[in-house]
Amino acid sequence: MKLWVLVFINALAVALSLSIINFYFQGIIIDSVITFSVSLVTSYLVFYYLIERFVYSKIKLIYKLIHNLKLGKDLKDALGEYVSADPINDVEQEVKEWARDKKTEIDQLKQQEKFRREFLSNISHELKTPLFAIQGYIEVLQDGDIEDPELSKRFLEKASNNVDRLASFIKDLDAISKLESGEIPVQYEKFDLVELINEVNDSLELKSKKYNITLHFKDKYRTPTWVNADREKIRQVLVNLLGNSFKYGKNPGNTYIKTFQLHDQILVEITDDGIGIEEKYLPRLFERFYRTDKSRSRDIGGSGLGLAIVKHIIEAHEQTITVRSTENIGSTFGFTLARA
Ligand SMILES: Nc1ncnc2c1ncn2[C@@H]1O[C@H](COP(=O)(O)OP(=O)(O)OP(=O)(O)O)[C@@H](O)[C@H]1O
Ligand SMILES: [Mg+2]
């Protein structure tokens, strides 16, 4: 309600009361009309002055404060001072909006805080496990009680495996922090995807043998497929996805790599016939450190950064990555690349 309406209603009530009382005692209409008019004008002026002076101007001030606080310094400078025409209503509105904004902000901060806590605890866990193992093996070897050279060798090998695990974890962590901070931008170049896939397949031959997985990449793909992307980053994507297909594959098992020509994109699909992923895990699969219970319980030794890295790389290319999977049947990870 506008200020003048408020004041007018008040003044009207006073004027009416006075003129009615006047009419009751005097019984002269003209007297009452004069009383009504005079008291209406006087009380209107007095009320207006008092409310404006002692209530409205203070509310206006509060309104202005909240309004400017909400806008922030920069926006306020851009828009200049703004005073509402109806601060009583607006102040309520603005306070409500302001409270809502603050609540979302606080929720976000809490979420981030939770994220940071989890991140730290994940990191320390991933560092602790191999580090303590290494420490254990070294202590045993240092004691010098082991007569059997075979056993010493086995302990050294185990320590060395854990060093490798530690190194690969730090490498992944480094990669993900660089990707997230945008420190290493995508370096686009035109290259033959088929050649890259063959290169990666060759480099993973030993590893696939170790897991008893046969890699299938059909001959019909032997003609060049030109794409525009960051070759080294896409190599990392292929290595991570193929690595997963080995780790979570059956023994013996198969991994298929297929490419499809879309309108102005190439779709790459990597399919395995492994343990698969329960549907409930799919939405969170690409989060950092996320691992399904199955892979945790089998303790295959990943830290859950591989897919987060893959997603970052593909999104930095402004392309998409998808996954479909059926438990105990297998999984298919697909990503797109821009055709050159
Ligand atoms: N091909 C797949 N088949 C079944 N489960 C998979 C497959 N790929 C990924 N997963 C599940 O998704 C989780 C996350 O994968 P991601 O590659 O991010 O981590 P990781 O393989 O456990 O560790 P890292 O790749 O960092 O060594 C895995 O732990 C596994 O549970
Ligand atoms: Mg992985």
Automatic annotation (TrEMBL):
EC number(s) stated in the UniProt entry for this protein: 2.7.13.3
Gene Ontology BP, a term: cellular response to phosphate starvation
InterPro entries: BphY/WalK/GraS-like, HATPase_C_sf, HATPase_dom, His_kinase_dom, HisK_dim/P_dom, HisK_dim/P_sf, Sig_transdc_His_kin-like_C
Gene Ontology cellular component annotations, sorted alphabetically: plasma membrane
SUPFAM superfamilies according to UniProt: ATPase domain of HSP90 chaperone/DNA topoisomerase II/histidine kinase, Homodimeric domain of signal transducing histidine kinase
Catalytic activity: ATP + protein L-histidine = ADP + protein N-phospho-L-histidine
One Gene Ontology MF term: phosphoprotein phosphatase activity
Uppermost EC category: transferase
Domain Histidine kinase: 122-340
Record's protein name: histidine kinase
Transmembrane segments: 29-51
Entry keywords, A to Z: Kinase, Membrane, Phosphoprotein, Transferase, Transmembrane, Transmembrane helix, Two-component regulatory system
Pfam hit, one: HATPase_c
UniProt organism field: Daejeonella rubra
